[in-house]
Model the fold of this input.
Amino acid sequence: MTHARGPLFIAAVATAGLLLSACGSETTGTATPATSDTTTAETTSSSAKASTTASAPPVAAGGNVTAPGTKLKVGAQAVIPYTLSDKSGTMGVTLVAIEQGAKEDLVKFGDKAKNITPFYLRVKVENLSGTDLSFTSVSLRGLGADGKGTGVIISGDTANCDSSSAPKTFTTSGASYETCVLSGAPDGLKVAAAEYNRSEYGKSPIVWES
Done:
C-alpha cells in the first residue's frame, strides 16, 4: 500500500474536500495561521449551495451514484464516480468515524499547531466498478458542528492517523482498504462532520454528519 506522508499544512483555504486522485509523490507544505478570509469564503460557499438545485451526476459503472447535496450519517456509504487520466470507475466511500486526537500528536509540527486540536476521519473505500483504481487516494474536509469549515485545513500524518492510498490490488469489485484523513479545529471547537465537494459536487457537496 502506498503511503502519502508529509508535514502538517494549516491554511485558511475553505475549498478542500474529499479528493479522489492518483498519488505517488510525497506531500509537502507549510503552516499558515487561519485568517478572517475563511469566514468570507465559507459564507460565499454556503450561499452558492443554497441557490443550487442538486441533480444526480451521470451513472458510472457500479450502480447509481450519490446525488449532490445528499446528507448522510457517519457510517453510511456514498457512491462516487471517479475519473482521472487513465483511471475511471466508481468508489464506495464511508466515513466510519470521527475521532478526537491528542494535542501531543501535533507537537512535532511546531508552534503553528499549538492552538489546533487534531481530529481523525476514519474512512473505508471500496471498489464498486471492478475497474483499475489502484494508487488512487481519498481525502475529506472536516466541518464544524455548524456545518461550516473549522477555519483550518491540515494535511499530513501522525502516529495515530496514517493516510494511505489504494493498494495495487485495488482493481476488482469488492476490493477495499481503510485510511485516515487528518483534520483539525482550533482548541475549543470540534470536527463534527465531513464533506466531499469535488467535481460535480463542488456546489452541492455530499456531507456526512454525526
Summary: The longest strand covers residues 87-100.
